[in-house]
Amino acid sequence: QVQLVESGGGLVQAGGSLRLSCAASGSIFSINAMGWYRQAPGKQRELVAHITSDGSTNYADSVKGRFTISRDNAKNTVYLQMNSLKPEDTAVYYCKLAVVTSIGRLFDTWGQGTQVAVSS
Prior knowledge:
The structure is a single chain. This protein has strands at 2-7, 10-13, 18-26, 28-39, 46-51, 57-59, 67-72, 77-82, 91-101, 106-110, 114-119. It is an all-beta fold.
């Protein structure tokens, strides 16, 4: 069994910064891709940033140059550094990890979500 714990959300003024964390624990052998998604009220969940096991990254056009995704494999943790935040970044942010368990099972697992609110 694998558990994810997200942290770091909150309320910030436009132009401010937040750093989200998503830590995985449990029967983990390795973690392949890691990603951050967000869902604003009335909208579909969308990919924000993605990082592969070898560190390759990609970002939604709306966050390029402002957000940075990174990972610490020793801690089974993925981060999202968000700078120059805008009101349109307001959403619930979710991490998703592609986990390989200690018995060789591969599956995607989601965090519980953390609220990010940006005031103008």
